[in-house]
Write a structure and sequence with these properties.
This protein is α+β, with helices and mostly antiparallel strands. The chain has helices spanning 8-17, 19-32, 76-80, 86-90, 95-103, 115-119, 123-139, and strands spanning 49-59, 65-72, 104-107, 143-147, 154-158. The strands form 2 sheets. The protein has a 3-stranded antiparallel sheet with strand order 1-2-3. Strand 4 (143-147) and strand 5 form a beta hairpin. The longest helix is centred in the last third of the chain and has 17 residues, at 123-139. The N and C termini lie far apart (58 Å). The model is unreliable at 1-8, 20-35, 37-42 and 162-167 (pLDDT under 50).
């Protein structure tokens, strides 16, 4: 069995091959919009985007700090696409950068979030986003169980909420 090496041009070819599945979804969508059709998932309360606040914040070229952002639920394609990315093949640790850049919909006023932006984030923010991604996509919520270091009482905090120490 021969191993196939995918180049940047090959990535587009693979995405085109998977395109018919998208076309079928798009043709089925107008039928779902008719009045007789059952309500769509979003109408039934499925939350697909989660807001977050970065611990430090992304600093852009002009020096503006962006802390508030949003991340959408990941699709199977989002998790498969980095596997054929040449940057990930050269450095497997780059997988999280590519994956996060696909599911983050905005950071502050930036709506075009790409791998270059995630690369320039502070390590604490990337670690926060990795944990946030895992919670949203694996557990379906943004809450975390914590224990008070002083009284050892347990309680939950919402990671998508305000800054630490604020209520």
């Amino acid at each position: 069995m021969r191993r196939r090496t995918v180049t940047a041009g090959g990535l587009e070819e693979i995405l085109q091959v998977t395109g018919p599945a998208q076309a079928a979804e798009q043709t089925a969508e107008p039928a779902a919009a008719t009045p007789a059709a059952p309500p769509r998932r979003e109408d039934q309360g499925l939350r697909t985007e989660f807001e977050f606040e970065l611990p430090r914040g992304y600093v852009d070229e002009s020096g503006t700090v962006h802390r508030h952002g949003a991340m959408r639920l990941a699709t199977a394609r989002d998790e498969l696409r980095p596997q054929i990315d040449l940057r990930v093949k050269e450095n497997p640790a780059y997988l999280s950068v590519v994956l996060l850049s696909q599911v983050i919909t905005r950071i502050g006023s930036l709506t075009d979030v790409h791998a270059g932006i995630v690369e320039r984030m502070y390590a604490t923010d990337v670690a926060f986003l990795q944990d946030f991604y895992r919670r949203v996509n694996s557990e379906g919520h943004t809450r975390a169980a914590v224990t008070c270091p002083h009284c050892e009482g347990g309680f939950e905090v919402d990671l998508s909420g305000g800054r630490l120490g604020e209520s």
